[in-house]
Amino acid sequence: MTVTPIFCDPLWVSVCCKNEVCALCGQQANAKVIEVIQPDDPFSSRRAMTGYLCANHFLQLMGPSAVMAVEEYRNGLLCDNEC
Ligand SMILES: [Zn+2]
Predict the structure, then answer these.
(1) Full-prediction pTM beyond 0.90?
(2) φ/ψ (deg, to 5) at 37
(3) pLDDT in tens, 11-23
């Protein structure tokens, strides 16, 4: 699957991602991904795994619906600013 790099100029990066790099490509991280441990996990008391991803790898992880949602959001922002 190819994801269009729509976050070339990110609007916002959380302070939690400052000085963090994407685990897959080494670029500035834009998203912190945290595992949700389900109550029926046989080791539910363990610490959740976390990782950092750049925006494009985050969208690859989340899939096409995330890409569409972000595009709709950004188009809405552009319309709000230009209309
Ligand atoms: Zn990346």
Answers:
(1) no
(2) -85, 120
(3) 568 899 999 999 9
Q: What's the 57 CA to ligand 1 centre distance in angstroms? A: 5
Residue 5 lies inside a defined structural domain of this protein: no
Residue 55 scores a pLDDT above 90:
no
Cα 44–15–38 angle (5° rounding)? 15
Residues whose beta carbons lie less than 5 angstroms from ion ligand 1: 22, 24-25, 54, 57
Ligand 1 centroid – CA 24 distance (Å): 5
Residue 68: which domain range? 15-82
Q: Does residue 56 fall inside a structural domain?
A: yes
CA of 68 to the centre of ligand 1 (A): 19
